[in-house]
Write a structure and sequence with these properties.
It is a single chain. The protein has 14 helices and 19 strands. The protein is an alpha+beta fold. It has a 6-stranded mixed β-sheet with strand order 4-5-16-17-19-18. A 3-stranded antiparallel β-sheet has the order 1-2-3, with no helix packed on it. Strand 4 and strand 5 form a beta hairpin. It is globular, with a radius of gyration of 25 Å.
């Protein structure tokens, strides 16, 4: 680690360090090492000393040429503009070109820019720091999957944090963006109850869950005229599409959400238990930061109604699941496999896994009993406005 004091002078393309005695003359692009030297003491991303040291060593040992300076400039511009797509593209190019340490090095370079974006958006420092510490979470995740190696490969996800698009509020994270699912949600004008209507052309298995076309037991239809519509309703308790169509009078319902409506997408980072009080606190904070958006959407294994079969009635997980009205989402492998047993797991792996927790044992037994698990979507509207 660079931990001595020094003075710096620049002369054309040469950098001079004065460290106690004689000048050390280095012919290199000074930007990476100078910036890293400033960041070795602290950072808002929660990176530890050994991680910062690894980044520093990487910067010193890698010849980036002039591309590094341009990447920093481009990243500065994209984050300042809160352009998550461009930010992700820059970081992914860095990842592909120089490996998983380079995105971290670039992120450290633009720490002050990220801070300014949060400040300009009126986000307080505590929320900012909690949000940006997701970088450390995914660095730790990377290490767990790569024999302790330091790096970051979830650049498309982290770009949303760098641009202050996702905010970590209490126990949960929130992101305003289009609903994006193939459903319409209507409110009954008489009693304010809501119904979910599936879009047309969705392939469903015999139980009403989304599947590939070749496996479909039926496909949804949605027909509308000036006064009526006929379509497949979604069971909001079980989160599956009804086989039979229902005809409704449009004059009795008001469209609340379609695929383009801006809603709050709720994300669930790993961490402390999902206690009812912590969820209530997060929802209240979301209402403060996003007062004009009261419709919240989530897609997760934690919304799967099958959790009723593998958790106790007092479970925080079960309580969280029951907050949501549900709808099916497309998935290849149920998310519960990777979150409860480990990444890359499929059903055969889960069944042969040596269980060490009661939840793992309950899931294995449920699978043997023929229970099917599903990653599930859901919404809630319990923010007070």
């Amino acid at each position: 680690m660079l931990c001595v004091s020094y003075t710096v002078t620049l002369e054309e393309n040469f950098l001079f360090f004065l460290v106690k005695n004689p000048f050390i003359k280095l012919s290199l692009d000074p930007t990476p090492i100078l910036r890293q030297a400033q960041l070795m003491d602290s950072n808002v991303f929660g990176l530890g000393t050994h991680q910062l040291q690894a980044i520093d060593d990487f910067l010193r040992s890698t010849n980036f040429g002039s591309d590094h300076t341009q990447r920093v400039a481009d990243l500065t511009a994209s984050i300042s503009n809160r352009d998550t797509s461009k930010t992700a593209t820059i970081l992914n190019d860095a990842l592909q070109s120089f490996g998983a340490l380079y995105p971290l090095a670039l992120i450290l370079e633009v720490e002050d820019v990220v801070k300014s974006v949060y400040a300009d958006a009126g986000i307080d420092d505590a929320v900012r720091d909690t949000t940006l510490r997701d970088v450390r979470l995914w660095v730790d995740q990377y290490a767990s999957q790569h024999n302790g190696a330091i790096g970051l490969d979830r650049v498309f996800w982290i770009s949303r944090h760098l641009c202050a698009i996702i905010l970590h509020l209490g126990r949960l994270q929130f992101e305003p963006k289009a609903f994006g699912y193939p459903y319409q949600i209507f409110q009954d004008s008489k009693d304010d109850t809501m119904i979910i209507v599936a879009g047309g052309g969705l392939s469903c298995d015999e139980d009403g869950y989304l599947t590939e076309d070749q496996n479909a037991a039926f496909q949804t239809t949605l027909l509308k005229d000036a006064n009526h519509f006929s379509g497949h309703l979604v069971d909001p308790v079980q989160g599956r599409i009804e086989i039979q169509t229902t005809q409704l009078n449009l004059q009795d319902y008001r469209l609340i959400v379609d695929s383009e409506t801006i809603v709050l997408h709720l994300h669930i980072p790993s961490g402390s238990p999902l206690t009812p009080s912590s969820i209530d606190e997060s929802l209240a904070m979301a209402n403060t930061y996003f007062p004009l958006i009261s419709f919240i959407v989530c897609s997760s294994w934690l919304l799967d109604p099958a959790l009723d079969l593998v958790t106790s009635q007092e479970s925080n997980t079960r309580d969280f699941m029951h907050r949501f009205k549900k709808f099916p989402v497309m998935h290849d492998v149920p998310q519960i496999y990777e979150r409860v047993f480990g990444f890359g797991m499929v059903e055969d792996d889960v069944l042969s896994f040596k269980a060490t927790t009661s939840l793992q044992r309950m899931v294995q037994q449920a699978l043997k009993n023929g229970v099917k698990f599903h990653t599930t979507g859901g919404y809630l509207t319990n923010l007070s406005n």
